[in-house]
Structure formats: structure tokens, C-alpha cells
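Sample intake sheet
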Amino acid sequence: MEIRLSKSQLDKFQDCPRCFWLGQRHKRRQPDMISSKGWKGVERGTGAHYEGHRKAKTTPENLIGQVPAGAIPVQLDEAAMKALRYWGKGLAFKVGDVLVTTALDDMLQIPDGSQPKGSRYAVIDYKSKAKLTDEESTASMYQNQADVFDLACNVNDYPTDGTVYFDYWSPASVEGAEPPANAGDTGFTMQRWASQVIAIKADHARIKNLVLAAAACIEGKMPEPKLERSVITRGVNKGQDKVDGCAVCVYLLEREELLTALAA
């Protein structure tokens, strides 16, 4: 049986092997969390910004001095870009029998005479954030993403130098921050957004090992939970069957217990 994984699923495996196993083996998924969708609007604006420069074959102004000279959005047509951004048609690679899929925001095309096509490539991912960040924070959150995306590029004839860029957009200044005069009046105008580009080096060996470890987890017995998560012991059979694990593990297992009890 072929195993198919994504960057997000590899993140879940690292967060808690038991939660990952329950999702993969028994389709017991983590519940959706409440989240802000404001970043979607920022992403749409950023995408339109890059599309304009793709057509003009120019470097986006916010990237000048933050990426290699001459870098422009990858020269692919609309259909190819749409496929690149969809996990079902995007760049993929295999580690053993495991298929790893991706959905990229964008790529840069960088002049490089050492490459057969005269260019090398680099993934650039759009992010939004409340304030400026740093390389350490970016690596702690997005190293898997950098590793997966960069390996996928190299396997699919988009050679890189191992660098992945994260383009963070954050509000820098506002003007006229007054109380709204009436409903629908925002009361202020956003004057400037800051673009901060953080470069992360990809590690192909690391991500291959992680993929194989995740596959072994799926094929094995239910693993222990991530130990640094808090331990909770309660449930339908409290005092009889003790379940140790992270809060999500307990929720998933107790939900199954409860549904079984209610059906009896």
C-alpha cells in the first residue's frame, strides 16, 4: 500500500506520533481549530503583486536586496502555476514507497550560468505576521516546509542551491487611527506594509529520515504520545483503563469510547 504524506502531516507526526497514527490508521482526525482568516486576504494581495512581476519579468520591489540579484517570479503560465499550488497536481517526490506531495505559493527563477537552462530556482512562501520575526523562529516553525519544498523542486527538474525564502508581510504603520464615525467606517488607513524575507537552508537527508520514520509509525502499533504534552487521565472507564497522552490523544480515544458506550 502506498503511503501519501504532506508537509502538514509530517508536522503532526513530529507534534505527537499517537495523534498522527490515529489519523492515518483510523481516520480519527484532530478537530478543526478556530483561526483568523485575515491572512487569506494578505496572501491574495501578495499573489497579485507577484503575478504582475511575473508578467513583466521583473524582480518584486520588496525582494530587492533580500534575494539574489536578477531573481524574478518563475516563468510559468497560469495553468502551470495553478497546478503548482494544488497538492493533488503539485510537485511530489518519493522516499522509498512513500509519496510526499506539495502545494507551493511560488518560486523564484534566478540567473545561473552553471545550470543547463541558465537558471536555478528557489521556493518563496508567503506569510503574514503581526510583527517582524527572525531566522531562529522561522526555522523552528517551517524547517519541514523548507526541506519538503526544496527536495520536491530538485527531484522535479527545478535545481536549487538549497535555499528557501519566506516572505513575511506585517503592518508597519497606520494613519488617522480615530474611533469609527459610523458602522462600516474603519477609522484608519493602513499606510505601509513591511516585507521581511527570511532565508532557510534545506536539509534533504533530514526530511527523508522523517518521512521514513512517519511511514514506520503508520505501519506499527499505536505509539506513545509526545511526552512533553500534558498528561490527562479521565474518561468513560476512569479507574479501569488509564489513558496517558496529550489532550488531543485523550479527546480522540475518549470520543471513540463514548460513541461505543452510547451505541450499546
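Comment: The beta strands are 3-6, 72-73, 92-95, 98-101, 106-111, 119-128, 163-175, 189-201. The helical segments are 7-15, 17-26, 38-56, 78-84, 135-155, 204-219, 247-263.
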